[in-house]
Design goal:
It contains seven helices and 16 strands. With about 270 residues, the protein is an alpha+beta fold. The protein has one domain: 4-Layer Sandwich (Double-stranded beta-helix), CATH 3.60.130.10. Strand 1 and strand 2 form a beta hairpin. The longest helix is centred in the last third of the chain and has 15 residues. About 35% of the residues are buried. Bound molecules: fe (ii) ion (FE2). The site of fe (ii) ion (FE2) has 3 residues, from loops.
Length: about 270
């Protein structure tokens, strides 16, 4: 069975003793349980093809056709996050992907294809640990509140949407999510915040008051107690619970190149209020 070695007490695990190209039912159960418990699973030295990467990910749900650039020869479920040598990575902030969707992707995965000589790490924070780390007073203050999320153009969306499509995304009605979510898989509450460019406001509060509270909570989730830093090595693969984590891609490796393959699991449920 897979060996699960926690990275910090709150979040992350290194997984060994499992062949990702031949996962049996018992191993799949163990990996799903480990993901619920640890939020992010790191597999080192995975010398597998993009097709094998996509096939492995099906133990976590239905893989969807990527909306990132898909390179020739890759399955449609495998997108490329490719920063070229002459390019600066500009998505360097704590965020969750797709929180502006009614059904955000529950699980995401990345597989290292090209790495800079050093740097380009990615940090992952547990929103369950962040909720548990709030004061009782703050927990009482935020119970029952909702947030309004909207899409914002980023370095990735600029490559795949026209100006008109981006404007339509900006005009779209915001999506409402609970500020305190409940993870039905383990009964834990999580602090469902995202960077303000996506998590725009608190539905039940005047703008200034809501923005101040969101800023405070967004700063809270960034405390090092709730996160770990993934130092990529060649062929490292990570799977994480997108809705229960934020991630931070560190943009410290200019002018070097970096390419990661990404697979997204389809979102089928609205986040549940605690
Ligand atoms: Fe992201």
């Amino acid at each position: 069975m897979p060996t699960v070695t926690p990275i910090t007490p709150n979040v992350g695990a290194e997984i060994s003793d499992v062949d990702l190209t031949a996962v049996n039912d018992a191993q799949a159960d163990a990996l799903r349980a480990a993901l619920i418990d640890r939020k992010a699973l790191v597999f080192r030295e995975q010398n597998i093809s993009t097709a094998q990467f996509a096939a492995f990910m099906q133990i976590f749900g239905e893989t969807v056709k990527e909306d990132l650039v898909v390179e020739d020869g890759n399955p449609p479920e495998v997108g490329a996050i490719h920063i070229r040598p002459d390019e600066r990575q500009r998505i360097n902030f704590w965020h969750m992907d797709h929180s502006f969707r009614e059904h955000p992707s529950p699980v995401l995965a990345l597989h290292a294809d090209m790495l800079p000589p050093s740097g380009g790490d990615t940090l992952f924070t547990s929103l369950e640990a962040a909720y548990a780390g709030l004061s009782d007073r703050m927990k009482a203050r935020i119970e029952g509140l909702h947030t309004l999320h909207k899409a914002t153009p980023t370095q990735n969306t600029a490559r795949r949407y026209t100006k008109e499509q981006l404007a339509a995304r900006e005009r779209a009605a915001p999506v409402r999510h609970p500020l305190v979510g409940l993870n039905p898989a383990n009964g834990r509450k999580f602090l469902f915040v995202n960077i303000p460019i996506y998590c725009r406001s608190i539905a039940e509060m005047p703008t200034a008051e809501g923005d101040a509270l969101l800023a405070k909570l967004y700063a809270h989730v960034q405390r090092p107690e709730f996160h770990f830093r993934l130092v990529w090595r060649p062929k490292t693969l990570i799977v994480w619970e997108n809705v229960h984590c934020l991630h931070y891609p560190v943009a410290d490796y200019f002018p070097h190149e970096r390419k990661l393959w990404r697979v997204v699991i389809k979102g089928t449920e609205r986040p549940v209020a605690a």
